[in-house]
């Protein structure tokens, strides 16, 4: 057999092994992380409501911090969720307090992390 045929056969075998490993054993086996399942912004006659549903996919109890900023006024809420638990948080903004267009920012942090894993901005009129 020529060297070229041997290299070709070895290359095919290596390629086959890599394909089998990719199918049966993925290289990156990332677990699931905490997520905001739903984020609602509801408008009522007398108020606006921001509602978040957070699901904890972690294997241990996890603390979450939710920061809501309305025109540079910060409101912070905290919640601890057990593994597999769903937490619901609501933040109400009264229409009495809104006399002009306002910006509302929401950020959800996992305990100990500086970067939010979910964030959104809403504009009230």
Describe the structure concisely.
This protein is an alpha+beta fold.
How does this structure look, described?
- With 125 residues, this protein is α+β, with helices and mostly antiparallel strands.
- It has two domains: 1-30; 35-124, Sandwich (Immunoglobulin-like).
- The chain has one helix at 3-24, and strands at 35-43, 47-55, 62-70, 73-81, 86-94, 102-110, 118-124.
- The strands form two sheets. It has a four-stranded antiparallel β-sheet, with no helix packed on it.
- It is elongated, with a radius of gyration of 25 Å.
Element-level helix/strand string: HEEEEEEE
Helix content: 10-25%
- Average pLDDT taken over every residue: 82
Largest sheet: 4 strands, antiparallel
Number of strands: 7
Q: Report the radius of gyration as a whole number of Å.
A: 25 Å
CATH class of the largest domain: Mainly Beta
């Amino acid at each position: 057999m020529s060297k070229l045929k041997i290299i070709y056969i070895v290359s095919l075998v290596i390629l086959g092994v890599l394909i089998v490993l990719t199918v049966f054993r993925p290289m990156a086996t990332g677990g699931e992380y905490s997520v905001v399942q739903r984020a609602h912004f509801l408008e009522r006659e007398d108020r606006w409501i921001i509602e978040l549903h957070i699901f904890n996919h972690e294997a241990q109890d996890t603390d979450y911090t939710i920061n809501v900023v309305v025109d540079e006024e910060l409101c912070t809420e905290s919640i601890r969720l057990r593994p597999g638990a769903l937490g619901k948080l609501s933040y109400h903004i009264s229409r009495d307090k809104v006399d002009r267009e306002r910006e509302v920012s929401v950020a959800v942090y996992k305990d100990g992390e500086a970067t939010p894993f979910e964030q959104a901005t809403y504009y009230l009129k």
